[in-house]
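Lab notebook: predicted structure, single chain.

Context: the supervisor wants predicted structures on file for every construct in the current expression panel, including those that have not yet been purified. This is the next one on the list. No modifications to the sequence; it matches the entry in the shared construct table.
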Amino acid sequence: MYPIPLKCVAPAVKALTILDAAFLQLETPATPMHVGALFILDAPRKGTVPYTERLRAHLAPRLGRCEVFTRQLATLPLALANPFWTDAGTVDLRRHVRRQRLRAPVQPGDLERCVARLHSRLLPRDRPLWEFHVIEGLPAGRVGLYVKIHHAGLDGASAQGFLRAVIDESGEPSPRDAVAAPDPALTEILGAGLRHQLQELARLPATLATLAKAGASLALRPRQAGPKTPHTLLNRVIGSARSFATCQLPLARVRAAAHAHGGTVNDLVLAACAGALRAYLEQREALPAEPLVAAVPVSLRASGDEEQTIQVTFMGVNLHTDLDDRLGRFAAIHASAADSKALTESLRSAMPRDLPSLGVPWLVGAFARVAGIQAVVDQVPLPFNVLVSNVPGPPHPMAIAGRRVRSHFPVSIPYHGVALNITVQSYDGQLFFGLTGCRRALPDMDLLARGIITEFRRLARLAPGGAPARPAIVRP
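Prediction complete. Output recorded below exactly as produced.
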């Protein structure tokens, strides 16, 4: 057992915001609410300490650098309101850092299937909500590292702070004296809960006034008639088993193609995903006449803010999958994304960071149960069909416990009604795509990954003055 290198003056009791807590309350065995990443690392040198042990020793003095490592949940009696983060005291790294090995001979897709299996399992709530899995047996002696963290209190921006606590740097940090924090007493949790509810109740009138003003401003905007979001095979109740697929694109070529078409990298990512989804559904004779709509996360953070909470909202982007013409589809996606971004920006200041939560855990838990009923999903209007997220990451190479990171594939969350999540992470001149879905709905996820590559190639060829781009489909 490794002690936490953090001197605790007093046990920390920190309230979860209403959005952070929702990721806990929406969680069921079929819908784990953690996110993750798959890193491919260079092969360890022969004769060195096994990488799992090296990683534990590497993490031990760094745990105090990021509160995600050391915080665990404390709930109010009867779950009357949202829970709190408290200091976990001592963290047993043997429970958090584990070893896996692929069976020989390793086949293409074995690593993705291993990650899908690990991603299907809930994180235990009696300890800090994170795990590292070292995956051995890859070709050329390389090592996979699957990192799994609960989404409660962590979004794409705050995850970068967590990553910096893990990666190598010049000079190893020195461990400090560890003082195990005692568990907070029930009276302390109740007192913290009461104070938090009173603070949010006091802010509520101002919050409601801001929302009313934003609503009035929104009502004055010209309304654009949009198509009804269709129900597709992506929009069903999901099971606990996951499917996972990966691909990557060279960032410079993506940027050049996007600019040649008069758009952004994010526009081209959305267009490549739209084309791949259109082809995938067409092959199954399941392409709806109405265009698919993507939910795209938008950060609400001020520059430099890496507080370990969720500060995002979503904008809906029409993917125009009803258009056969690729250039027309790209231009339409660019316009839709620009309109949605402008609307989101106009509402940014009105979006509350927190609200009173008395009774909210019961309501959200009830919603999670109802959302798992297929008849309900079939009947309710869908806000979107798929989630597509583009997260900026480190532009330069990094290493973890002495091993260079070659690949950085994100792993994310599908949910009832949205069986597919496509997350893109930039790193070291590449865009790494991680496609996470329900295995029952999407057993052949690798075909979608291949479709993204194919669609990018075709868009790149159509770029004015652009040379044909032929990125390879890369399997970890």
